[in-house]
Amino acid sequence: MNGQKPPASPSEEADRTQLDLAKQEGTAYFRSLEYMANKVAANGATQECGDVIVGFAQEKAEGMYRLRNQELVWEEPPQDENCHFEVTVIDATDRRFIPNLDVTLTVTDGKGNEVGSEKMPFLWHPGLYHYGRNWALPGDGRYNLVVDIETPEFPRHDKVNGRRYAKPIKAHFPSVQVKTGRG
What we know:
Blueprint: H1 16-40, E1 43-49, E2 52-59, E3 64-68, E4 71-75, E5 83-91, E6 103-109, E7 114-119, E8 122-123, E9 130-135, E10 141-149, E11 169-178
């Protein structure tokens, strides 16, 4: 990402200090995103889509803690799962993570055949909030990723700055080299 959107404007809801602090938060988050996509994951990229920047990272399938009977229990991924996709959606103006979104990832193979289409739930991660899940892919290779994000229905403060995210988003990541496996 080279440029950023123009800064948000002070308004009845956010003064300059609040907007500067939001931008600092977003700058730190974006550094974490770049680290995940470029140093930790097998592959990753970002793409500006209007009011947001959509990013993805691809790793081997991984286990997770899940709440079962009010206890966190470690669960290994099912045997058929061999890939973990992470999707992040951030504000293009201040680069902060946008929570509470309805995110769907569709994966097709190099011939355009759909491998799957799945909702990507929010995953808490100590280094990078994201939407994600494990997948069962046919194997290593090039895949096309399409991220669909529904228009969020959450209320917005600020008639000056709050007019963002008013349309559905579709991000295309063609011919992504995927390395499958289990972490």
